[in-house]
Amino acid sequence: MTSGGPKTDSRWLALIVLCAGMLMIVLDQTIVNVALPAIEEDLKFGQAGLAWVVNAYLIAYGGLLLLAGRLGDLIGHKKVFLIGLGVFTVASLLCGVSFSSEMLIISRFVQGAGGALATSVTLGMVVTMFPKPDEQRRAIGIFSFVAAAGASIGLLLGGVLTDAMSWHWIFFVNIPIGIVAAIAAVRLVPSSVGLGLREGADVLGALLIVAAVMLGVYTIVKAEHYGFGSVQTLGLGAVALALLVGFVVRQRTAAKPLLPLRVFRSRNVTGANLVQISMVAGMFGLFFLGTLYMQLVLAYSPLEIGLAFMPVAGAIAVFSVSLSARLNSRFGERNMLIVGLLFMLAGMVVFTQVPVDGSYLPDILPAVAPLGIGLGLSFPALMTLAMSGASHDEAGLASGLVNTTAQVGGALGLAVLATTSTSYTSSLVASGVGRLEALTSGFHLAFWISAGLVAVALGLAVFVLRQVVVARDDAAPVLVH
């Protein structure tokens, strides 16, 4: 029983503030893609350099998420969130005023670092703010809508801003949002007392994990250019793996480990993160290549591409915000995750059949609609399962881990699918197949791989995850063993 309306209202207002900050950062991961041609022309990027507008952000963001989440546990989640918002907002200003390619790439790296600080602790703050299962399910549903639908909204917003104004405004738009969100967060988001840096002051461990993840993401994103079997890819991958092994060994022996390995004893924490790697790899790669299919084969404009994906955001809103809490409460998170993955798989299979002369209503809408339903069902359930084994003192760590596996999965999926699609398309063109037919066939192959990755996630959900069961309304979720 709550003590009164104002307290409850303030928590939900705080959730809106956290989601506003999260949305700003999630949007930035796709809003830039639409503006890349304009950026290339204005700042005289080379083709190789242009990729670093995206890669610099991904490497900083993915590399710092886990460390940032643990830092939130140690010095306070709200403090880390506000620092991240500040860094992200200032970096957005620098991106917007960039007058050279070097300045933009450096600013994007700083922007990624700020984004990692802010988003790494957000889910942990949501879970601790709403400990009661029914409220927590509703809050995670809203959070999941922002996390999952932000990519689709970013495509639309990027097209609108780039067409109507200029590429500079895809960064300038973050400034008022960041300022308002920070001011509101100071007033509305509850503060938490961290464990203290002495509880996790493992400097060597921090250096090892940041270096391992950053190098791993770099290796993945560059594998598209060098090839997965190249000496550079295999060598850098081996170094990244060695750094990761060194980090694990360090955590086993450190008196105050940065990442207590006991968190992985939870079958649901480990399983949910494995599901997320595979699921996001398939989803992110499909969205990216689906965008290229519409642009290169169907000749859609940036705005038309954004509008084409809007049913995804609409379906996610309906299912994650309005229905997920009731469905998860009635049928269980594990079961709803399985249903959601089946919907996603169905949408991806439909995408494998899109023709060269495709049109929206008969060909694309039947593919994107099931994807939206699947994401709306999957993400809230997956977030609950991933956080179910984390204690209050490790909420930031679990939150950072969830975000890290999402980034690694997205980078891996994009690299694998883009490389496979490009290679197959090139081989078809060399054999005399027309350009549009070759492109479409290359996309088909990538979409089948996306479906395969989601099928792997489905298998993990069925055979690894356990159902979260609530003993009573005021209890935290517990696991069935």
Automatic annotation (TrEMBL):
User: Is Transferase one of the keywords UniProt gives this record?
Assistant: no
Please indicate which superkingdom the organism of origin belongs to: Bacteria
Keyword Magnesium: yes or no? Answer: no
User: Entry's Gene3D superfamilies?
Assistant: MFS general substrate transporter like domains (1.20.1250.20), Multidrug resistance protein D (1.20.1720.10)
UniProt membrane topology term:
Multi-pass membrane protein
PANTHER family reported in the protein's UniProt record: BLR6921 PROTEIN (PTHR42718:SF46), MAJOR FACILITATOR SUPERFAMILY MULTIDRUG TRANSPORTER MFSC (PTHR42718)
Q: Which NCBIfam families match?
A: efflux_EmrB
Could you tell me what this protein is called?
A: DSBA oxidoreductase
